[in-house]
Design a protein that fits this description.
The strands form three sheets. The protein has a six-stranded mixed beta sheet with strand order 3-2-1-4-5-13, with helices on both faces. A five-stranded mixed beta sheet has the order 8-7-6-11-12, sandwiched between helices. The model has no long low-confidence stretch (mean pLDDT 96). With 334 residues, it is an alpha/beta fold. The chain folds into two domains: 2-116 and 289-327, Nucleotidyltransferase, domain 5, CATH 3.30.420; 127-286, Nucleotidyltransferase, domain 5, CATH 3.30.420. The two termini are 21 Å apart. Helix 3 crosses helix 10. The chain is globular. Strand 2 (12-19) and strand 3 form a beta hairpin. The chain has helices at 45-67, 86-103, 112-124, 160-170, 177-187, 206-218, 223-249, 264-276, 286-289, 294-306; strands at 2-7, 12-19, 28-35, 76-82, 107-111, 130-134, 139-145, 148-154, 198-199, 202-203, 253-257, 280-282, 311-312. It binds adenosine-5'-triphosphate.
């Protein structure tokens, strides 16, 4: 089946063509994306949506051309239905509806967060993993259980990446903070005790941030040591809850996704934990980890293959800015 995927949850607009007759990541024939950016790094939803409106036809053309597929060959259109910024979601949905009407192709809405999980599984050739999602805004431990992707633990305040970026801002070392803190941490020599906040399966970073701020502003601590200690404490926290999820769920694969998963020290610590419990640790390739339309096309395809009822009529197609990962009934995972 030839599937068109459309991604438009936030700053990235993407169009991808996949061919489900091909195995693994080879099913991705094209995966085109373009990102709305601003000087200060924030996002104005309506401006992003206008940007998407202007580029959507061009990106579709590029995706078809690169895949060497004609629009008439498309057999299913999958669009990012949730969660995200309403004006951006609306542009993607309307693009999908317009094409589905014109070419009389079935339509399916896909949860963007679940698409990250599914493409992660495909990329790592993993069957039943625990996911550790550590991006700017998100910190969640997720796994499939009893018909849903369930969130077993999450941050009680800020995402791990945002926490690191906040300390980097305090220490005036620029944005994004993750890679810079990592560089400084390599030069750190002394472990400074910091608040370590794990509550059951959840984590919290605001106490550690306040403590780091006080220590930095006191002028009594070396910044390299603070960066080193931040990494040792914060990564140990998320690895502790991931290990507990692996143990409780009796699973033996851990997939880390999100920008912070590219950190070398985090990966080293995760490798050690997984090795000690005979589990495998994976980080998917960069191309599929960032927001992209191939993950939407792929997830739409496996959902539709499992149950055509996941499809929607053009009249009933909608978008759901606040849909959570565990709101979706997962009937495609056996
Ligand atoms: P979300 O997807 O949750 O809305 P986002 O798009 O900002 O957030 P990502 O792009 O997945 O998230 O990740 C960005 C975060 O990853 C930033 O906080 C950045 O500091 C962090 N990061 C990037 N590289 C590294 C690194 N090498 N070490 C630690 N953190 C890193």
């Amino acid at each position: 089946m030839i599937v068109l995927g459309i991604e438009s949850t936030a700053h990235t607009y993407g169009c991808s063509i996949i061919d489900t007759s091909k195995k693994k990541l080879a099913c991705i024939l094209s995966n085109i994306k373009q990102t709305y950016t601003t000087d200060k790094g924030g996002i104005i939803p309506i401006d992003a949506a206008n940007y998407h409106k202007e580029i959507k036809n061009k990106l579709l053309e590029q995706a078809l051309q690169e895949a060497n597929v004609k629009i008439q060959d498309i057999e299913l259109i999958a669009y990012s239905q949730a969660p995200g910024l309403a004006p951006c979601l609306k542009i993607g949905m309307e693009h999908a509806k317009e094409l589905a009407t014109k070419y009389k192709v079935p339509l399916i809405g896909v949860n963007h967060c679940i698409a990250h999980l599914e493409i992660g599984k495909l990329s790592c050739e993993s069957k039943d993993p625990v996911f550790l999602f550590i991006s700017g805004a998100n910190t969640q431990v997720i796994s499939y259980a009893a018909g849903k992707y369930r969130i077993f633990g999450e941050t009680l305040d800020m995402g791990l990446g945002n926490f690191i970026d906040s300390f980097a801002r305090i220490a005036k070392i620029g944005f994004p903070g993750g890679p810079k803190i990592s560089e400084l941490a390599e030069k750190g020599k002394h472990l400074i005790e910091l608040p370590y906040s794990v509550k059951g399966m959840d984590v919290a970073f605001s106490g550690m941030l306040t403590n780091l701020k006080q220590k930095y502003e006191s002028g009594k601590y070396n910044l390299n040591d603070l960066a080193y200690s931040l990494q040792e404490h914060a990564y140990a926290m998320v690895i502790e809850v991931s290990e507990r999820a692996l143990a409780h769920l009796k699973k033996n694969e851990l997939i880390a996704i999100g920008g912070v998963a590219s950190n070398n020290r985090f990966r080293e610590m995760a490798e050690i934990m997984c090795k000690e419990r005979n589990a495998k640790f994976y980080v998917p390739g960069k191309d599929v980890v960032v927001d992209n339309a191939a993950m939407i096309a792929y997830t739409g395809a496996i959902m539709y293959k499992a149950d055509k009822k996941y499809g929607t009529s053009i009249k009933n197609a909608d978008f759901l800015p606040y849909q959570r990962t565990d709101d979706v009934n997962v009937r495609w995972v056996k």
